[in-house]
Design brief:
Keywords: Cell membrane, Membrane, Phosphotransferase system, Sugar transport, Transmembrane, Transmembrane helix, Transport. This protein has about 160 residues and is mostly helical. It contains 7 helices and no strands.
């Protein structure tokens, strides 16, 4: 971890400044960017930069951005989990079991539930997750959703 703190901190500061400078009309662009970032590395550094921005928005009372991020956090594991239930014939028995765990993780806002699927087939899973998360984030933005908790997943529904 040594040596990564400075670049990640600088990236977070620069991205936060840029995202905070976006006007209300750019909310769709912001939603797309947040969705792509949150789903790209499933809990890795890019995801954490977007999550850090979400936490800043919680502290600043910008709850529409928090809702956008909450959706982006939940969509990849929920999507893969549902895919293993709906398209059972396309997944092995082990993948179907992993899908059940991904569903639970998506419900509590843990994007990392997708990692086993992405490790097995990164060229299809990562882009699909990014497109799905970006689509969900744009939907949340256009619907004017707000979330008052600095977390994602179905677990935050009571405060949305």
């Amino acid at each position: 971890m040594w040596g990564l703190g400075e670049p990640v901190g600088a990236l977070t500061a620069n991205l936060t400044g840029w995202l905070q400078g976006m006007r209300e009309g750019s909310i769709v662009v912001l939603a797309i960017i947040m969705g792509l970032m949150l789903a790209f590395d499933m809990g890795g550094p890019v995801n954490k930069v977007a999550y850090a921005f979400m936490l800043i928005c919680v502290s600043q009372g910008v709850y529409s951005v928090v809702a956008i991020a909450a959706v982006g956090i939940a969509v990849p594991p929920l999507g893969m989990g549902l895919a293993t239930l709906i398209g059972r014939k396309y997944f092995t028995a082990e993948e179907r079991e992993t899908g059940k765990a991904a569903l639970v993780m998506g419900c509590v806002g843990v994007t990392e539930g997708v990692i086993p699927f992405a490790a097995a087939d990164p060229l299809r899973v990562i882009p699909a997750n990014m497109i799905g998360a970006a689509s969900g984030c744009v939907t949340a933005a256009l619907m004017g959703a707000q979330c008052y908790a600095g977390w994602g997943g179905l677990i935050v529904l009571p405060v949305v």
